[in-house]
Amino acid sequence: MTYTQRWQELLDLAPGPGTLTHSGGPWTAASGTAGELRVRTEGSRRSLGTGHHAVRSPGTGLASVASLQAVLTSWEERLALVRDECAYLTGALSAVAKELGETDTGVGQAVGAVRTGGRER
């Protein structure tokens, strides 16, 4: 089998046009999910503070209120870290989607220019 015949065989086995896509796919979806999680995490963090505020005033001076405040602070810090990580991931995953999408376009144009057996692919 010649070099040209082998390439022809590989081209014939290649998937049809439009099957290699990243943009609008898993990376973009993951970015959107990270963004949603960031928003929901922040909402949960705020709700914790609101819920604990109602306990502080009537329970002033009780040891359990001080313990509850320590738990609140710990959870607020953890949720803030999750929120911030999700904000980072939203941008990073979106950038990957954009980069891969641009690569897909370039590869698609390059593959589209290949002529095989008298016809363009």
Textual characterization of the structure:
- The protein is mainly alpha-helical and 121 residues long.
- The protein has one domain.
- The chain is 76% helix and 3% strand.
- The chain is built from three helices and two strands; from the N terminus they run αααββ.
- It has helices at 3-13, 26-56, 63-112, and strands at 115-116, 119-120.
- The protein has a two-stranded antiparallel ribbon.
- β1 (115-116) and β2 form a beta hairpin.
- The radius of gyration is 27 Å and the shape is rod-shaped.
- The two termini are 22 Å apart.
- The relative contact order is 0.16.
- The mean pLDDT is 78.
List keywords for this structure.
121 residues, mainly alpha, two-stranded antiparallel sheet, 76% helix
Which secondary structure elements does this structure contain, and how are they paired or packed?
Blueprint: H1 3-13, H2 26-56, H3 63-112, E1 115-116, E2 119-120
Antiparallel strand pairs: 1-2
For the secondary structure, the number of strands is: 2
Unreliable stretches: none
Estimated share of beta-strand residues? under 5%
SS-based class: mainly alpha
Radius of gyration: 27 Å
| Percentage of residues assigned to helices | over 70%
**Sheet with the most strands?**
2 strands, antiparallel
Order of helices and strands: HHHEE
Strand neighbour order, sheet with most strands? 1-2
Number of helices: 3
**What's the mean pLDDT score?**
78
- What is the number of domains? 1
| Oligomer classification | single chain
Name the overall outline. Answer: rod-shaped
